[in-house]
Amino acid sequence: MKQSIGAKTLAFPTPAWVVGTYDMNGKPNAMTVAWAGICCSTPPCISVSLRKATYSYAGIMENKAFTVNIPSEDYVKEADYFGITSGRDEDKFEAACLTPVRSELVSAPYIGEFPVVIECKLLHSFEIGLHTMFVGEIMDIKAEESVLDENGNPDIEKVRPVVYGTGNRSYYGIGCNLGKAFSIGKKS
């Protein structure tokens, strides 16, 4: 029997993505978000939700752009750091020893060391409550050649993305492949 645990911000999986922005002076900044995901196929869009109090919120509003940087398990400490420190107080890229790279397509930096980067122009923003949801149209995805599959797409087992466990506030890697989508459910 299922037990009610109440209305909570709990869903599985939840990404641990790092959103890149420029501040009002053009300084690169980034913050870790978990309230995020693909939200439209055509045009291809992604959503991220931030509180107004964050430094990155103002950067997205000012520049009408952001990047989504997908850290591999190798960068879990840096991803956590980007979520617990404010860009108002220090240069996060310098402190984390990571490289901000200027996007040629949108007014936002991406993290050179992370294996996958999604460059987005701001399409919509919606105040929901404590958070504002930003919907960004995906202008390009950049991926390290080493994480691409034979079709030129990022391979999740090579990327080794970090996911966030909202219930216990911990980071996890991905599990094993369980089967092919749009196929495993077909009757044999």
TrEMBL record:
Obligatory cofactor(s): FMN
UniProt GO MF annotations: FMN binding
Pfam family, one: Flavin_Reduct
UniProt entry keywords in alphabetical sequence: Flavoprotein
InterPro entries according to UniProt: Flavin_Rdtase-like_dom, Flavoredoxin, Split_barrel_FMN-bd
Keyword Flavoprotein belongs to the record: yes
Flavin reductase like domain sequence ranges: 9-164
Classification via Gene3D superfamilies: Electron Transport, Fmn-binding Protein, Chain A
Family to which the UniProt record says this protein belongs: Belongs to the flavoredoxin family.
Source taxonomy: Archaea, Methanobacteriati, Methanobacteriota, Stenosarchaea group, Methanomicrobia
Protein's name in the database: Flavoredoxin Flr
